[in-house]
Amino acid sequence: MKPPAFDYLRAETVGDVLEGLAQQGGDARVLAGGQSLMAMLNMRLAKPKLLIDIMRLKELRQIERKGDAVTIGAGVRQADLLAWPDLAAALPLVALALPWVGHMQTRSRGTICGSLAHADPSAEMPLTLVALGGEVVLRSAKRRRRVPAKDFFAGMMLTARADDELIEGISLPVVREGRFVFREVARRHGDFAIVACAAMKTPTGVRLAVGGVADVPTARDWPRLEGSALDDALNAFAYELGARDDVHATARYRRDLVRMIGRDLIGEVLQ
Amino acid sequence: MTRLKADQRHSVRFSLNGKSVEGEAEPRMLLSDFLRHQLGATGTHVGCEHGVCGACTIVVDGMLTRSCLTLAAQVDGCDLKTVEGLAPSADRLGVLQQAFRRNHALQCGFCTAGILMSLDHYLASNRAPTEAEIRDLLSGHICRCTGYTPIIQAALEAAAELASSKKETSDA
Known about the structure:
The structure holds two protein chains of two kinds.
Chain A lengths: L6 E4 L3 H11 L3 E4 L5 H6 L7 E4 L9 E4 L2 E5 L4 H5 L4 H4 L1 H6 L6 H4 L4 H7 L5 H9 L2 E5 L4 E5 H4 E3 L2 E2 L6 E8 L6 E6 L9 E8 L2 E7 L6 E6 L3 H14 L10 H20 L1
Parallel strand pairs in A: 1-3, 2-3
Antiparallel strand pairs in A: 4-5, 5-10, 6-7, 6-10, 8-9, 11-12, 12-13, 13-14
Helix pairs in contact in A: 10-11
Chain B lengths: L1 E3 L5 E7 L2 E7 L5 H8 L18 E4 L2 E4 L12 E3 L13 H8 L9 H14 L5 H8 L9 H17 L8
Parallel strand pairs in B: 2-6
Antiparallel strand pairs in B: 2-3, 4-5, 4-6
Helix pairs in contact in B: 2-5, 4-5
């Protein structure tokens, strides 16, 4: 289908974006790579009165490492981050998860922050943000605030972003010594995940983050667990996520995947 | 800052396969429709219109782009390449196109334009792709009648031919 009618604003400064959002509020949407938003428009699942195109703003295109954190601006495309030479060293989990985001033909234009704004519960970037405990930087004409990943995702395709706020960027912690693993089950590589899991070692044990099951990507920390204690913990977690049946998979299959992939990944990081 | 009104047509200019083109579009007009209906460049096909099938894939400023997920207004001033730009002349096919013909890599041809654009772009910077890499690239396209086997074969043959040719080929 075709998108509904809207005004189109080509922003030349961040001020233009914030002003547009302040004036139009919930009737405005920020357009970055368009790989989620344009599909929503074409299907008429979104009907904004104003689109604010931010992709001509060079200041939002930065990837910067500052001490123990990497900041990624709102205009950084997924392909830009994949091509960043420090990615594997600074953000190994992102390096593992990013090739699973869409296809080469969509990563070339889609942005990291756009995927977070869309907040699909099956998407890889929200899962990665939650697994790493990153932060989202939100900016309006009046203020700037930093929201931890676990508070940012409020529900299926819902976030803590207020109508007048731009996702200016995100901050991801650099974990110096860690072992990270990522695994996903989807109908085809590049499709949205039926279940995606990331696991990492923590100072006290292990963390498992799961996407595609609950309404939001969810992380859980455990001390070192083995054998039946691990099985019990994973089983309880799988049920707590509240899986539902849909056209892609049954709730039971999703719980099975959480238990099986979870056990494999935790075994791998604790080796 | 430029604000284009929803109910008006606005001038859009860009470079299409090396030629400067111009037309008028409402802000909501998709680039795929602008190419086909305003410019008459019907080589770019429209399938699903939500970025999944890959038929409308073109290259914008060196980036593979779903033209159905792009507004005409977004590419004002950009450099576009579509399937019409692949053949070196009207009576000659490029290396990749010839490989498609030899291998029967197209049947109905609906998905072909997008697949050619992806492969042309990919082979320009990846001279020795593996079959797995070609398959990964093709995961961004849906073909429902030819089958992927001859498409992969054509891509690998074209890659080998491009790698062995001495001159820099711009007409892959």
